[in-house]
Amino acid sequence: MLEWKELCDQLFPQGHTVKADGQVVTGQGRIGDETVAVVGTLDHAAIGVDIALQLSEAVIDIMKQQPGAPILMLVDTQGQQLSRRDELLGNSPFLAHLAKCFAVARTRGHQLLSVVYSEAVSGGFLSLGMIADETYAVPGAQIRVMALPAMSRITKLPLEELEALCRTSPILGPGAHNFVALGAVEEIWEGPLDQCLLTALAKKNNLDKRRELGASRGGRTGAARIAQLVREH
After folding, report:
1. Using CA atoms, how far apart are residues 52 and 18, in angstroms rounded to an integer?
2. Strand, helix or coil at 134?
3. d(CA 174, CA 187)
């Protein structure tokens, strides 16, 4: 897997100012004629109250200082912070606040892209990654809703049964390729990362087509049809 600095060096060969502060990275990168605002996490960060506020502040600062600039989220998170302190403070509203900051940025004309370069799990990935207009991954990135042993404990299904289900359905299975099949990840970037980013920036897609992608790829066959039925009734 790539380290965040190696990732930024490959994404922005014309130069960047991305720096780490704790487990949060922020800065800017130059690519083609664009200056891209960068915000993300490192070291499999568990996103709790503190990191969510730190990321939210960075997004708000981008809206003030770089109005309309594309925002690239660098995703490396083990999920939400599972601690008594964070739960007592109300972790979920802080994650929702982070997602709202990105949503406001979208309404103000910021293109939102994300790339999973290490690990993406559960609630951390929802608020930092899947909130993007389009989500990408690099080869070797690990994406999952939940570890299968934990899923087994919660669903009461034997681990062996879950492992068998994962072999036939991408809905339960870990791995970036399964999330591509579901339509949640646009594609796994192969080749020079700066060229992949340039291609993504040029698309400027602000329509959520994940349900349709999941259906066309055979990974999530019912969501688009059911959503259409709901809209019609």
Report:
1. 18
2. strand
3. 15
CA dihedral 5→11→12→16, nearest 10 degrees, is -30
- What are the 10-residue block averages of pLDDT along the chain, 233 residues in total? 93 97 97 96 96 98 97 95 91 94 96 96 89 95 85 90 86 87 94 96 85 91 90 89
Residues 151, 219: Cα–Cα separation, whole Å: 20
Q: What is the pLDDT of residue 80?
A: 87
What are the E-state strand segments in 122-169? 134-137, 142-144
Largest CA distance in the chain: 53
The pLDDT assigned to 166 comes to 84
Residue 219, class by beta-carbon neighbours within 10 Å (0-12 exposed, 13-18 middle, 19+ buried)?
Answer: buried
DSSP SS3 for 96 = helix
Global pTM exceeds 0.90: yes
Rounded CA-CA distance 31/19 in Å is: 17
Residue 37 phi/psi, 5-degree rounding, is: -80, 135
Distance from the Cα of residue 221 to its chain's centroid: 22
Q: What local confidence, expressed as pLDDT, does residue 172 receive?
A: 76
Distance (Å) of CA 19 to CA 6, 9, 71, 83: 12, 12, 15, 27
DSSP 173-192: --SHHHHHHHTSS-EE--S-
